[in-house]
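User: Design a sequence. Structure:
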């Protein structure tokens, strides 16, 4: 490690990553930021990530607390974690407020219906691709289709899986089936 960051610089990096990596990729963004600034070597960063993966809770917040503590003590841990989490939390609160106030508008209802249709389309495409790659034909393909339709119609997932297992459970046939 060639140089140590100041607490304001460290918090600024976490705030920037919190804004850019909302929803994922925090560890990758932090690696780039810490490597570029020479705050940690790649090996040191990977050690920190390894430690944080073994702690309970989300890796990103664990990593922000650990690196904040490493460079700024207890105050650094708190400030870096808040800087990482706050942008996403504010965005979620603003979007939830927006969605709570405008759901009656036709444009919003249409947009949400389009998102739902796209999600169903993606699910069907993924099932089709997985079914083709797994060579699900005959009874197995039928079981997959029935399970998907059942879940889509509101059948509880455990019940749908139990029915699928019952349909696909290997059965012994022939004259020696009971002799085993």
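Assistant: Done.
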């Amino acid at each position: 490690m060639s140089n140590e960051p100041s607490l304001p610089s460290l918090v600024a990096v976490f705030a920037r990553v919190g804004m850019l990596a909302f929803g994922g990729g925090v560890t990758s963004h932090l690696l780039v930021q810490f490597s570029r600034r020479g705050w940690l070597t790649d090996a040191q960063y990977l050690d920190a990530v390894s430690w944080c993966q073994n702690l309970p809770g989300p890796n990103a917040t664990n990593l922000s607390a650990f690196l904040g503590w490493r460079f700024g003590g207890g105050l650094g841990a708190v400030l870096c974690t808040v800087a990482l989490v706050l942008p996403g939390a504010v965005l979620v609160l603003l979007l939830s407020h927006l969605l709570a106030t405008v759901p009656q508008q036709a444009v919003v209802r249409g947009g949400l219906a389009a998102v739902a249709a796209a999600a169903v389309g993606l699910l069907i495409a993924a099932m089709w691709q997985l079914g083709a790659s797994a060579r699900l034909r005959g009874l197995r393909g039928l079981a997959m289709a029935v399970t998907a339709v059942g879940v889509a119609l509101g059948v509880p997932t455990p019940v749908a899986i139990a029915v699928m297992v019952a349909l696909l459970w290997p059965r012994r046939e022939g004259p020696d089936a009971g002799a085993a």
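The chain has two domains: 7-101, 106-168. The mean pLDDT is 81.
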